[in-house]
């Protein structure tokens, strides 16, 4: 379950990070409330994951999921640049997340 919680934390991080765009520096109440709720949910699931996953691993995976997710959404929906180097480096982040997961399996 801790890895499931960590994935949920990462997915809700994507939601609040994208939502920040719509808060307009926290001047729009509804998007701001949505971002705060998504942040709280993300931190809650991260805290559950930290009961069993080392903090360095959990934090790196959490931010990795968020970074890759936001980058992909940015490319698809917001016109962020799509090029070979971006795809390569996003793939490296994904590889790092997978590697951290595997390292916790084999460390036991």
From TrEMBL:
<feature type="transmembrane region" description="Helical">
    <location>
        <begin position="57"/>
        <end position="79"/>
    </location>
</feature>
<feature type="transmembrane region" description="Helical">
    <location>
        <begin position="85"/>
        <end position="107"/>
    </location>
</feature>
<keyword id="KW-0813">Transport</keyword>
<keyword id="KW-1133">Transmembrane helix</keyword>
<comment type="similarity">
    <text>Belongs to the drug/metabolite transporter (DMT) superfamily. Small multidrug resistance (SMR) (TC 2.A.7.1) family. Gdx/SugE subfamily.</text>
</comment>
<dbReference type="InterPro" id="IPR037185">
    <property type="entry name" value="EmrE-like"/>
</dbReference>
<dbReference type="GO" id="GO:0022857">
    <property type="term" value="F:transmembrane transporter activity"/>
</dbReference>
<dbReference type="InterPro" id="IPR000390">
    <property type="entry name" value="Small_drug/metabolite_transptr"/>
</dbReference>
<feature type="transmembrane region" description="Helical">
    <location>
        <begin position="33"/>
        <end position="50"/>
    </location>
</feature>
<dbReference type="GO" id="GO:1990961">
    <property type="term" value="P:xenobiotic detoxification by transmembrane export across the plasma membrane"/>
</dbReference>
<protein>
    <recommendedName>
        <fullName>Guanidinium exporter</fullName>
    </recommendedName>
</protein>
<keyword id="KW-0812">Transmembrane</keyword>
<keyword id="KW-1003">Cell membrane</keyword>
<dbReference type="InterPro" id="IPR045324">
    <property type="entry name" value="Small_multidrug_res"/>
</dbReference>
<keyword id="KW-0472">Membrane</keyword>
<dbReference type="Pfam" id="PF00893">
    <property type="entry name" value="Multi_Drug_Res"/>
</dbReference>
<dbReference type="GO" id="GO:0005886">
    <property type="term" value="C:plasma membrane"/>
</dbReference>
